[in-house]
Amino acid sequence: MAANSTALPPTVIPLNLTDPQSVLETYALLSGIVRAQLPPLQNTFGAYLICTCIGCMLFGLTTHQTYRYYRLYPTDGFGLKTLVGILLGLDVLHTITAIHVCYYYLVTNYDNPLSQGTGVWSIRLGIIETGLVILVAHCFYARRLFLLGNGHIFPVSIIGLLLLAEVGFSTAATAESFVQVSFEKFFKFQWLIWVILAVALLVDLVATSILTYYLRRSRTGFKRTDSMVDVLMVYAINTGLSTSVLTFAALICSIAASHTLIWAAITVPATKMYANSLLAVLNSRRSLIDKGLEGFETGSFGLKVIDPRALDRASHALEFGPASPRLHGRQQKMNAAPMQTVIDVKVTQETYMDGAPDGDPARADSALEYASDRAMRHEWDA
Question: How many Å apart are CA 108 and CA 228, to the nearest integer?
Answer without folding.
Answer: 53
